[in-house]
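Field guide to reading this record: the first block holds the primary sequence, the second block holds the structure written as discrete tokens, and the final block holds curator observations. Each block starts with its own label. This record concerns DUF7730 domain-containing protein, catalogued under organism Trichophyton rubrum.

BLOCK 1 — SEQUENCE
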Amino acid sequence: MPKFSQWIRKITHRGGQTDGHSEQPARRPPPRRRLQRPRTPLIPILPANRRPLSLSYPTSVPDEQRATENSLFFTRLPPEIRRMVYIAMFGARTIHVSLNYSTSYVAGKAHARLDTIKRTDDYNLQWRWWHCVCHRYRNLPFWNDRCQLPQYTSCRAHYGDHSSCFIGVLEWLLTSRQCYTEAMSVLYHTNTFIINDEFYDGLFFKLPDLIPAHHIRGITSLELTSRIIPDGDAIDVGDHAALVAFLCSFFPHLRCLRLHIRRGGRFIERSTHTVSGWIQPGLEGYRLVGAAIFYTTDQLVHHYSTKLKCLEIALDKYIYTRVLMVQPEAVIKTEESHPRQSWRRFWRQVVTYDGLDLGYYVMEAEDQVLIPIDTCL
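BLOCK 2 — STRUCTURE
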């Protein structure tokens, strides 16, 4: 029997036993290699020597000037009518924009041709831009938007094929230099852009490296998501303060801003300099949290003054309820609720440095909507 067990070890190459007729030990299986995901490359940014396409720069090819000189669209229609045509084609919409490092997208039958199927056989990972037209109900609040989730997208609020879920402006931009110049101003000036960091952390702060500066300055309407420090320290305002400073620096023509402030994330305590999670402060702590939120958000009103026509701030229900508790009685009396939905809001009054009596609405971001949803949500 011992000889039989040695023979089994010999033919299975186990145990490193030596053969009686050979001096070489039995071979061992090679060690298993751990699969490692390749490192994510840096986001491709705009080159420093990018050639501008604006008409204010001299053309390098004479044919570029003759491309539209015989076009009736440019010779017969005045600029005002052409702008109205541009707005009807690809303007005055709410657009989701994201940048994701992933494989190629799988076309489906849902809104914006989204599909829940993920490709496992495609290893072509690269940075990919993605966009779609938001088709949520108009009476829904801006924070209750799930257009990027395929399992919620049926797109019944909008009739038409999947082409209506996209802008479809690329073909027009590639037609000629004049088409590009006139269309880009309408594209950035009239549309509302929804940019959040669900797909890639910090995408909004990288826009100056991804989009030409004069196009960023032309954006007039945004819907963003921010986070606050989940602690009672009124000095640290974290990502929310950085977002407000970024808006004031790079978006001089901003006219409408809807901002959803969520709780969670990380914060840094100045005393210990350690990173911690969410802490539930007491009543006095929420008084400081409310002061931190409002002091930072008020800077938008001071900076833009009357130029900012629409400013709405949505807080998570947990934060909204406790921040409202520490507000003055006069502010609590201004609270109102939506007749069909569950969210509430109150008016935050701000007196600017110029003495103007302005303000903005602070809204409750309810997680669940009570009305039935059969749209692209």
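BLOCK 3 — OBSERVATIONS
The chain has one domain: 78-365.
The first helix runs from residue 2 to 12.
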